[in-house]
Amino acid sequence: TLRLWDLERGACAETLPDHGSSGINCLAVDWSARRSLCGLADGMLALWDLDSTASLGRLRRGHAGPVQCVAADWAAGHALSGSTDGALLLWNLELGTAVSLHGHVVWVSGVDVDRGSRYAVSGSIDGVLRLWELRSATCVRTLQGEWNELKCMVVNWGTGQVLSGGAGGALHLWDLGSGRHIEAVPGSGGLRRDAQCVAVDWTTRCAITGAIGGGLAVWDLDRSSCLHTLQQEGESAV
């Protein structure tokens, strides 16, 4: 189910019909054109019009496994999706065609696209991060630490830093330019469960992570510490 929320009221503003789709695992939103691109459990991607709630079609040929992450460069008409089959696909949204980006061999768990330079970063469950040049569909840098279970990531394209999260709620900060691991933030101060999603305010250097099983953790990246946790019993953050 896809729901549109009013953040000021803290209420669901609209529920979009599923149009017979399988479960939604991830999405990217074009707020100017009021449309969304969703990654589905059946390996397809679906486009929705947020105002009319109408289906705008599906991208059917590509993934053999559930789509776990998606990011879009709406102005360029491209999207990047990753799935549990290890496939990373670069889509032409107008034509509905895709090009494979070869490199990952296991579950692709995160993607992010730089809308200006046509670069992208992807991460997989084995802890590998890859920097891609999308025009040539080539990997230009690989980053890997001594840990596994990368489950989410977000990129600051202005500074060239990546924050990844995974097993035990731990966070890792990377520098894309040098490929260097900058900092590790242990998950022991947070929920102590795998970080499944992450968002960052790069100005204040604060991050928020969500865990399966319920709960959010707010982090101070400069102090490498958890500021506080929010949890409601019986509910999952993702």
UniProtKB/TrEMBL annotation:
Pfam families: WD40 (PF00400). WD repeats lie at residues 60-101, 101-142. Gene3D superfamilies: YVTN repeat-like/Quinoprotein amine dehydrogenase (2.130.10.10). One of its GO terms (cellular component) is transferase complex. InterPro entries: WD40/YVTN_repeat-like_dom_sf, WD40_PAC1, WD40_repeat_CS, WD40_repeat_dom_sf, WD40_rpt. PROSITE patterns: WD_REPEATS_1, WD_REPEATS_2, WD_REPEATS_REGION. Keywords: Repeat, WD repeat. This is Guanine nucleotide-binding protein subunit beta-like protein. It comes from Pyrodinium bahamense. The lineage of its organism: Eukaryota, Sar, Alveolata, Dinophyceae, Gonyaulacales.
